Amino acid sequence: MSTAPTALDLTGLRTAPAQLWGAIRLVPLVREQPITDLRLHERLYPEDAGLVELGRRASYASYVPHAFVADWSSDGSPVAAYGSWLGGPAERAAPPSMDLRLHQRLARREKHTRPDGGTSRRRLRFLPLHLALEGFLSLHFGGPTIAWAEWSQQAVRSGLSPRAEEALLGGRVRGLADALRHFEIHPGQCGVLLYTGDALAAAFVVPHPEDYRALHPSLVQDLYGELVYHYTSLMLPLDDFRATIAGPGIRSLADLRAAAEEQESAWAHFHDGTMAAGLLAARHTFRAVHRMGRFTLSRFLPEFRLKQENHLGETITDEHGRLAYLKTFRLSENQTRRGHLLSRLAAHDWRLSATAAELGCTEAQLGLRLASAGLGFLLRQDVLDGFRRQAGPAGRGAGGGPGAA
């Protein structure tokens, strides 16, 4: 079920002072009241790659390092987290090879044995970030809804199949493993916002502080966009934000405590309103994926705003909309451009003339823009060649025009 675009709500989470390591800044998120009837723990997979079955003869191949398992109770009573473990693949005597694990569905209920010996299906295994990325990969995956003359036979018959997007393993992000190992985990911390070069790269929130302590190391196994890699490779060490308290007016410990709390409040206001505005102030379209008692697992897509931050992700919220779990992925400019073009084409029933009119460019410029975004295969070759001739030498490679990303 899709909903109208809405903003992410971090009610119940407080922004704590940031910690800095080189070009990486981690901003802790602290819960005053942890959620006790939903708990997350990690399941590691030793295989190098995975094949995920989506049903209806659809599947995709991807790097799947781990899954999250959510346990919830129907009566609100606490449930225990099993924790997390880290380890490399076992030594094998056989020649080097790539193992493959088959995952049935992105989110699947599992049967487990309760401490009293009975069985229950109040456990959900889901692949973190894969729910969100699959939503992006399947964006208008069917291709043109009307077989206009400009579209190729491949586009009409197969849509955008096959479609691939690139992401980077957290272990390749310079300094991330060191930052996670050295940074202090705050009391009550249930999440973190990860910045590289002071650009928001990812957000991660869990229900309970014990869950965060168990899953904190898993951030190095997650998938990240190319911006994270480039910023940590090219940026110089960042300046730390340091609070200052003026001496005059401080006459007691109570005055000092009040001044410190004022500085913390000012930092949180600056962070939420400025540094994280690209995620928190933006509007997203949510789609419910699975219901778990009073909780709902959903994924969301951005509005694909050109030249701005665009994050996709997944959430678990309770019946009041309170955020229990969040994981996000920042799209690159090229990924944003593809999402923007596909969304505008779909909004105009894939008619080039109407889409070009909305974007303020000619059909030829729109066609070249599709080609530069890696979607040129959707157009017939003779149509694309004609667009290139119309653009002339200056526009054949750029796919420019008004509003081009």
TrEMBL record:
Top-rank taxon of the source lineage equals Bacteria
Where in the numbering of this chain does the ARG and Rhodanese-Phosphatase-superfamily-associated domain appear?
A: 8-293
This one is known as ARG and Rhodanese-Phosphatase-superfamily-associated domain-containing protein
Taxonomic source organism: Kitasatospora nipponensis
